[in-house]
Amino acid sequence: MLFRLSGIVVALAALALQAPATTLEKLSLEEMAAKSHIVVRATVAARSSVQRGPMVYTVYKLNVSEKLKGEAGATLDVSVPGGIAGGVRQTIAGSPVLKPATEYVVFIWKSRSGILHIIGLSQGLFDLKLNSAGEAVLTRGVIDAELVDKSGKEVTSTPLTLTLERLRRMVRSTEGAVR
Questions:
Q1: Distance CA 30, CA 120 (A)
Q2: Which end of the chain has fewer CB atoms at under 10 Å, N or C?
């Protein structure tokens, strides 16, 4: 029994060493607005998975209802690290899971290869709900990843709430900002 338990502990330790840790630089709302190529209000229409090299991505098809920044068509395909493809399952701390038929505001950057990603993983994704006055309110919970500031010092994640109108003004004020 002790031998078997030791084997399980060793196997779990080996898996833990292989699991990639995620450390993200904490981005302010202003930084995300300035660094994003595209910012949209959109609803999740579909989801699929793809493997690119050793990484698995979940690809979300978004129906765009409003463009706050950048060039975007009626739909966008946004890749998020993690998912299941070809029998391989990957989980990446800090990667958001988008829900079908749910409305979001998404901060997007385009890689050199043209693939669209959510900036800062979960940092760049906000749930959109209407409050009792009918005003669109954006919320983001605590990020499930280690966050550091620009100097590499660990910082804590805090929930964030703002109105869509405040975000529109902020995005307009960052137009033309150097990325």
A1: 13
A2: N
Kindly list the structural domains of the chain, giving each domain's residue range(s) and its CATH number in brackets, ordered by start.
21-174 (2.40.50.120)
Question: What is the C-alpha separation between 122 and 133, in angstroms, rounded?
Answer: 27
> First vs last Cα of the chain: how many Å apart?
58
C-alpha pair distances (Å), 151 with each of 21, 26, 147: 19, 11, 11
**Rounded CA separation 63/76 (Å):** 7
DSSP state of 74: S
Confidence of residue 56 (pLDDT cuts 50, 70, 90): very high
Minimum mean pLDDT range among 3-17, 45-59, 92-106: 3-17
Residue 176: what are its φ and ψ, rounded to 5°?
80, 0
pTM value is 0.82
Question: DSSP letter at 20?
Answer: P
Helix and strand numbers (H, E) in the chain are 3, 13
DSSP states along 122-146: GGGEEEEEE-TTS-EEEEE---SSE
Per DSSP, the three-state class of 32 is helix
Round to whole Å and give the CA distance between 26 and 123: 8
In total, the chain counts a number of residues equal to 179
